[in-house]
Every structure is written in structure tokens, then in C-alpha cells.
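Narrative of activities, Objective 1.

The group set out to show that a structural description can be obtained from nothing but a protein's sequence at a throughput compatible with the screening campaign. Below is one input-output pair from the validation batch, recorded exactly as produced.
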Amino acid sequence: DTDQQTQVKGKINRTRMFSQKMTRVIIAPRWYPTQRVVELEIKDKTLPEALVIVAERTGVALSIKPDAIDRLPNGADTRVTVRMAGVPLREGLTRLLRPVALQFRVDGKKVEIEPTDVLRRVGRRATWDELKTVEWLGGLTWAQGEAPPAEMLKRVAFEVEDANPADVLSATLRAADGSDGAAAMDRACRANAWTWYPRDKSVVVLSLREQVRRSLQRAVTLRANQRPLAEVVTQIGQQTGVLIKFAPGVLQGLPVDARERFSMLLVNSPAEQALEVIKGATGLTYSVEVDGVELRGGVNAVLAPEVERREEVAETKDDPIVGRLVIPGAGDAFQYEFFIRESELPADIREMRKQELEKVFEAIREARKEPGKASDQ
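Output recorded for this entry:
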């Protein structure tokens, strides 16, 4: 790669002659794009605009995950400013992303940008105060074996049941590498089965299990029609960042109909509600653990009548979806949507539907007999 904007006088190593001008040549492996050196300044641009500028100037493919944008204070309109003065692209990207609590990873020849773990733990769009708190914490340093800065502990709010959590945290931080306050907080909390996230200008410390419960309040949207239950559970986990797993043998113990043809429709509803729907439909229970959620204890007898009914319908090979039921949620914050199959309609409603359809079909037939009349309509 050649940086043709940096011109120097005299003779230096690794140079090329362009019209009697000496131009510095930057040596960087093609397969490792973040070693490239960049020199540019970005002022008050939206993050997507800034990434386009970096990509155009470096020739490196950059991509950002949608959930990274969704977690920023102003979404895609979140604005950034950064100066990259002859620094490796790796350092330049760190300067660009650190103030908004994002990170990057190299995937082959492209660079992918994603939320940091702490930004995911916020569980919603972060505020600017919360992003500044994360950056402030990351800038704190202390020598291993020394006490962490007093102002750090003053801004910690404990939501754990442990005895003397402040003393426990202080002792753990003293033993940690204090070259990066945020990383040290990660290690100290992990050692005590805790975690942390920013709330306004405070640092909240809570148990891992409680953090999982918080994550289950995150809104999810699920449109599953006759899909494998494992696939539905995976979607819930992806949208919340929570590991959701089946206890050994539980999934295989469910009837085929419940295991392979599961339906659920939720729009902008808490993930915990989705788990309750699964619980009610399958007889499974779930427990919140320190590392996620485990589904366990299937009760096949609860499903038997429903399975038999659907098997009878399957034999006819004719059970189309004929309608959709929409029920507003509390305060219109969300809504429930259910597809209705023909076999689920009561007999009188099914007969009424047939009669109304016949009226529509008859009207179409009459219109086809009179082309002029049909065109007027």
C-alpha cells in the first residue's frame, strides 16, 4: 500500500520515485488490514458516514452489525469525531469506536464492528452519560497491588446480596491488572460471579443471574409458523444475547408436533413472555442460571390432545391459514398476533365463512359475464 499524501525530502528506505518526488511506502500485509497506516480527520459525522470515509481512504471493507447501531444513543444518527494522525488502522478504529462502546474484529479481509459486552448488558439504547461512564472507567489506571482510585468505588452501586460487597470488590481490584479500569472491573466481577453495566453516571454491580433476568426483559419479535422449537429458542437467544439451552434429553422427549412444528407470533414483547408461551404450549419449565436459561421438564401428556387433533388434520393435507387475530397489549406498547387455521374455527363460523366466500365468488362470476359492467366497477 502506498500513502501518496506524505511526501518527504531526501533519501529514505522503502521509497519510490514519482516525478522526482519521494513518496513514503507503507508496508502492510494484504491479509491483515488493520496494520495499514491511516491519516485522516473526521469531524461531527454520523457513525455510518465515518465508516464510509475510513473504508474509502483505506480500501478496507468495513461492516457494522445492526444491533450495534440500535444500541447507540441516536441510532444511525449518532455522531462521532476522531483524528487519525499516521496511526495504524487498528489504533484509529479503536479511537473512533471506544467513545461509543463499540469494538471490531478482523474476519478474513474485512473488519466487522459490533457492540462491546458492556454495551449489550445495558439492554437498551445507551445514553451519552452511560457511554462517557464506560470510557471514563476504561481510562482509569493503577498499579497491581495498589488500591484502585477512590472515585471509582464512589460511583459503584451494588445490587448484590453478598456481605460487604464494596470491600470484596476493592480487594479483588487491588489484585487485578489496573492498566485498564473497565477490563479490571470485568475480571473482578467475574471472580465474584458478578457483572456490571453503566446506569447514568454510576457503575451498577449485580449478580450474573440477575443480569440474565434483566436481559429477558429485552423486547423481541418472533414470527414462527410451523418451525422447529430449537430454531425459535435460538432466535430468542440471538435477540437478547442470552444463552438458552435445553436440558439433556428434553427436546427429544417432546412429541414431534411440538418439537418440529411450533408456532408463535410476538411483536416487540419481552423475551420472558416468549418463554412463558413456550412453557404453556409444551409443558416445559425454565430456570434462570448464572450463564443463561435452561429449558427442562417436558410434560408430554399436556400436549397429547392437541397432537392428536393436528395429526387428524394432517391426514386431510388441507388445513390452510384463513385469518389473523390481533389483540392489543397493555398501553398499546405491544400486540399479540395469532394466525388462525381453518380447523381451529368453530363449526358455525366455518360455515359462515364458506357462505360469505360463495357470495364473493358469485359476484365475480356475474361481473365476468358483463365485461362492460366489470370495467365500470
